[in-house]
Amino acid sequence: MSELAELLERFRRGAELLAVATTGAAGPELDFKPGENKWSVRQIACHLADAEAVGVMRFRQLIAEDNPTMAAWNQEAWAANLDYSKRKISQVIETFRMLRFANYELLKDQPVQVFERRGTHAVRGPMTLLQMLRMYAEHAENHVKQIQGVRAVFKEQKARQAAR
Fold it and tell me: 1 by DSSP, 3-state: which?
């Protein structure tokens, strides 16, 4: 399997990984924060959905435009001002799934040379479509691991409290 094919498959699987990582999470577990300035399962899932929405634009810019400039976004401001704490987890997961699927469908049939197209990210600097694909594939994978960690800490604390 080529590097591109492997990356596309990892990218595609992001929605499945998120769904599996959040299966069974409900009530206080969704909003538990493992520490100060740490995000809850709900907040991480919301962040992934919003990041994928940003990706909708970025992927299309890189494919359609010559050397586009891709704006940065303030994830902390989005988390604070877009009511992450009130969003329904099922809707958030479905939004991520739909956006990831749309992005995957766009990317999977692009000719190999399209993945060499460049743009300029406002913070990261020059990036190719292939680098953007890698970043988004890893983004979901890393946040899924973060969700698993948050859930593990929640369960440990719950078990300690029950043992008292």
Answer: coil
Rounded CA-CA distance 42/45 in Å is 5
Judge contact between 33 and 159, C-beta under 8 A.
no
CA 144 to CA 44: how far, in whole Å? 8
Residues 132-164 pLDDT 10s: 999 999 999 999 999 999 999 999 998 988 887
List the chain domain ranges: 3-163
The closest of 78, 71, 73, 12 to 39, measured between CA atoms, is 78
| Residue whose structure tokens are 């999470």 | 25
Q: Name residue 70's beta-bridge partners.
A: 121
Identity of residue 25: A
pLDDT digits 0-9 by tens, 39-93:
999 999 999 999 999 999 999 999 999 999 999 999 999 999 999 988 999 999 9
Residues 6+ away with beta carbon under 8 Å from 149: 34
Q: What is the pLDDT of residue 75?
A: 93
For residue 140, give the amino acid letter: A
- Tell me the two tokens of residue 117: 């197209």
Contact 45, 89 (CB under 8 A): yes
Domain spanning 3-163: which CATH class is it, in words? mainly alpha
pTM surpassing 0.90?
yes
| Tokens read off for 158 | 């719950």
